Structures
1.
Amino acid sequence: MTDLARLGAGPLRDLFARGEASAVEIVRAHLDHLGRVEPRVEAFLSVMADAAQTRAVWLDRSRSSGEPAGALAGVPVAIKDVLCVRGAPTTCGSRILEGFRPPFDATCVKSLVDAGAVILGKTNMDEFAMGSSTEHSAFKRTRNPWDLERVPGGSSGGSAAAVAAREVPLAVGTDTGGSIRQPAAFTATVGLKPTYGRVSRYGLVAFASSLDQAGPIARTVRDAAMGLSAMAGHDPRDMTSSVEPVADYIGAAEGRGREIAGLRVGVPREFFGRGLDPEVAAGVRRCHDALAARGAEIVEVSLPATDFAIAAYYLVATAEASSNLARYDGVRYGFRDPHASTLKEMYGRTRQAGFGPEVKRRIMLGTYALSAGYYDAYYLKAMRARTLIRSDFARAFEKVDVLVGPTTPTPAFRLGEKLDDPLAMYLSDIYTVTANLSGVPAMSIPCGFTKAGLPIGCQILGRYFDEPTIFSVAAALESDLNVMKQAPPLAVDD
């Protein structure tokens, strides 16, 4: 039989639906492969082996009784540990939530399960999604399957590494400033941040509520479309959830979407300036050439407020984090320091021991930005810059249909390389934060490799709720560049 752990979500679902592979066989194949590579990659915080196998048995019985197979029937999926899964450890990579098991599923998790997916486990992440390398987890450091001495990106590095290492064909991440797309670029996977409001945030532990958005990470564009199709839709439990109808993402990924000929492709001038690695720039230029060869019109555009993006993002995000993380005080749930003699001391000791250094740094930055005397000087100015960024995108999309540029300024950096320089770490998100500040959808796809064999990511940004055009462009590039079939040696030689 075909090695099931090497297949994507689409082929696995088809094998299951035709009765050519059972869910039990699919799950066991992935658990076996995971057991071999996980000690080197460390992508998971918890593996739900027993629950996954029980679920697989149930799916096989349902198929045998004539029940129709769901859109993701039999497909193993990994969930970033910032999303609630009923009865499963949900730590957000933090000691302060160690041992917490939510009594409910996040809406997007429930949607995946309703589509027939099998939850294989919860993936590692930067604590409370605050980081760009998955080195800020309280529990372990995830490694990049393409080079185990390099980071997989963050904060969804565990989900991206699990997909790249073939531990699962599909994973869910969250993106606050690039936390799906940057790991996807570093690991040669496909990662999509949908339009803000496209996927429910109910059950997503908040970092920055106006920026957070869940989305799929997969090995192919079509698999990513399958993931988004299952997760997207209105949720009355989330006041920011959109009522916009769910489009045919799978059709767009299969070539039944918008034609590339005649498409206007924007090249953001500000994305090709100082700090961009030449090999990354060359990889993205190949994408422009491939689209031009298909008849697309390549148009240079300007997003001048990009210069303010990092500063604006880290003021808005930390301010919202300061508010959201106030609930972790040792009173309601989670870790509590048992040695305090007063309430005030208990607050301080709990947070001192429960939060890691990066979370503490961002709480302090956000609290300072919101404090009396500084609100106008920092937070209010950041919100004005956010308005300028939105205006930039609105003007650009009057001229073009999509924007295509680099996802990150460099390939994956070495473990520990930027831990002592937070600003350098923050600048790795320079091309991704604008999509979160504006709310537009954006996807990263692999577009090549450096001479050292490190993946390069190309970012495609679109209009609000125009994910189908992004999928059409991504599918065309996937076909023309032919780089997505490559796998890290670790994944095929285990």
Note: The CA atoms of residues 94 and 447 lie 34 Å apart.
2.
Amino acid sequence: MGIELEWFCLFALHLVGTSLFGVFEVETPWWRLMLKWLLIAGLVYLIYQWAGHWALAAIIIPALAGVTFHFIWCRKHAIHPLRALPRRKYYRLRGWDWVE
């Protein structure tokens, strides 16, 4: 099997990540999200070319680190880590405008 395993893992990570944590990126511009995933895919491709299936570590380790940081950041700011509640407080911390 070639790089298909890495692409599948990226797809699964993106699918689960946007489903669970999409609420945290409501005001993020679409181009920024696209750029992030293009950079991640490009990095995984380059690592795969250099190190083979060790590129899976380049997917899994940052994802675990990101989820850990996310939960710590949310708990520190008294925001529910899966629901982004209270929403007004979350928007203020992200620098977004709250519209009633």
Note: The radius of gyration is 16 Å.
3.
Amino acid sequence: MQIDDYLYRKDNSIMLSKNKIKLIKSLDDKKIRQQESLFLAEGSKTVSDCLSSFSCELLLATPEWLSLHPGVKAREIIEASHEEISRASLLKSPQDVLAVFRQTTTSIPDEKTLKDKLSLALDKVQDPGNLGTIIRIADWFGITDLFCSPDTADLYNPKVVQATMGALSRVAVHYLPLKSFLESLKETPIFGTFLDGETIYSTPCSSNGIILMGNEGNGISSELEQVVTHRLFIPSYPPERPTSESLNVAIATAILCAEFRRP
């Protein structure tokens, strides 16, 4: 898809063309994102953080935003009004900047690198908001690697990018066959949550290992349950009180990470 499409205002400044709007909006489609190796980020925090880690192909921003961010580097920068940005934006409430970035590939760390670190793994987590929030949680707790089954939501889905609030620039997300990968980590403890697990409040949590989180509706699959070495349980309070059937996977991830990072 052609990104070099130039229209000019009377003062010779570049203006936003219909083709560029079409390109930006097309990045809501996974097939197009993969075909073009591009993704969309919106909002000052998300765009600013992504600028430090990804190659920016196109940046669309108001004059006010550009004046507050001198020296921004992008292949193409277009000064635009809020009205122009709103025509290209995928958000209900467009912000003062959006940008198109080039996707990157990350190398999968080996067991020697992982064995002294805490990492996360996701088994078929399919809601984009959950994935984005989990990436943000990982960033908060200093977790730099997230391993995802191939059928987990796409990292570059605009809803995922938005929910990370820029954290995707600091957390490496790897898509791979989870079972064979986790089985290869012979010396790394693998933690998963189950109703018959040991309560996290009485079980010592290590500073290293992989926390495996399951699908929103079905939990950890039976296939991956086989590789879990430590079964954990997040109890409700008080135990005898009727309560919700389960926790949201992102909330459960935050609770677990907080316990694992407890001094």
Note: Confidence is low (pLDDT under 50) at residues 7-12.
4.
Amino acid sequence: MTSPQPVSEPSRREPVLLVAASLVAAEALALLAVGVSVVLGGAESRLLLDVTTTGFFLAYGGGLLFCAWGLLQARRWARAPVVFAQLIQVLVSWSFFSGETRWVTVLLAGTAGVVLVAVLSRPATRALVDDEPAY
């Protein structure tokens, strides 16, 4: 006779959270790459500026990567910083609107829009919120 298998808890991983986490991770990796490129391509005359800029991008990218992991694990705390980062990204994208860089605006704002829709959707909210609202 075999012993009964323990009943596993149903997975709370929603496809929308997987999409959001993947896009946020891609954003994080891009920010980490920018940070590394700043320090590698920097001039000796602006060393302090390059070091602080690199530190900013590495911290921002690392924080977003941690939040992407939080979304994958359906952690409630991950949603607020991700939403904030996407709103900042929409504002930054606007600076690329004119001229030949308009595609950057579309890329940044489009990615931010998809992430916002995903993390604020009903399935994501159900997965991230443990308790039912009391009416």
Note: The chain has five helices and no strands.
